[in-house]
Amino acid sequence: MDLYYMPASAPCRSVEMTAKAVGVTLNKKPLNLMAGEHLTPEYLKINPQHTIPTLVDNGFAIWESRAIMGYLVEKYGKDDSLYPKDPQTRAVVNQRLYFDMGTLYKSFSDYFYPQYRLKQPADPEKFKQMEVALGFFDTFLDGQTYAAGNSITIADFALVATVSTLVLVGVDITKFPNVNKWWENAKETVPGFDDNWAACLEAKKLFDQMKNN
Fold first, then answer.
1. Within a 10 A sphere around the Cβ of 78, how many other Cβ atoms?
2. Which residues contact 16 (CB under 8 A, 6 or more apart)?
3. Distance from C-alpha of 2 to C-alpha of 146, rounded to nearest angstrom
4. Going edge to edge, which strands form the sheet with 54-57?
5. Which residue in the list 9, 14, 65, 164 is annotated as catalytic?
6. Confidence at residue 203, expressed as pLDDT on a 0 to 100 scale
7. Which ranges of the chain would DSSP assign to H, the alpha helix?
8. Which of 111, 147, 188, 191 has the highest CB neighbour count under 10 A?
9. Nearest-CA neighbor of 16 among 145, 205, 190?
10. What is the pLDDT of residues 176-207, one digit of tens each?
11. Does residue 14 have an active-site annotation?
């Protein structure tokens, strides 16, 4: 099973944590996006959108990290605990996944990437939007241990990958007590958390290099 990825990418790290949780070994194929390795004819045949991560499982190609995470659990999970089949429970997991994609991770991307890719100054309004998104997440976590309830799910893996990146670039999550408590618990309970954090530290070197060039 091949995973085309970049260690610096939060969506890629969320897939790696999911694979760890279900006991799947990935054949990791790193792509250097800055060198255009995602635009080769060979890769475009696999994923015409030329995004990462992309999983190829016995000839079946799927991209978009949250779709990959669901696929891995449904095909390889020992049970459905990480992505419950109960319609209401799954709906909450999906909501958290979409919140991560469309609100929290997006707020990070809107704030951070213009500084590193376009050399623009930090926008304090966009930073506030990141904090608003964290405030929403803090509310979601009120009275529960994990992102979508009281058991760990793939929503936690996606959100851990995003929050790891926020912490890495200096966002103070201690201002959000429920998020901070969830984060500290995730360090002990999320499969592959240490590998995720190690990849973050490597990503910081890349971000610093981008910023200084």
1. 10
2. 3, 5, 26, 192, 195, 196, 199
3. 29
4. 27-30, 2-5, 54-57, 60-63
5. 9
6. 79
7. 10-22, 41-46, 65-76, 87-99, 105-117, 124-140, 154-168, 177-189, 193-212
8. 147
9. 190
10. 999 999 999 999 999 999 999 999 988 777 77
11. no
| Pairwise CA distance, residues 23 & 191, whole Å | 10
Taking a C-beta distance cutoff of 8 angstroms, is the pair 155, 148 a contact?
yes
| Residue bearing tokens 């089949």 | 85
* Alpha carbon 76 to its chain's center: 20
Closest CA to 17 of 159, 138, 141, 134: 159
Q: Per-residue pLDDT tens for 132-163?
A: 999 999 999 999 999 999 999 999 999 999 99
The 3-state DSSP class for residue 8 equals coil
Tell the residue number behind the tokens 């790891």, with chain if given: 164
Determine the Cα–Cα distance for residues 50 and 46; give it in Å rounded to an integer: 8
Whole-angstrom Cα distance, residue 25 to residue 72?
11
Structure tokens at 165: 């990146």
Written as six digits, the tokens of 194 are: 């240490």
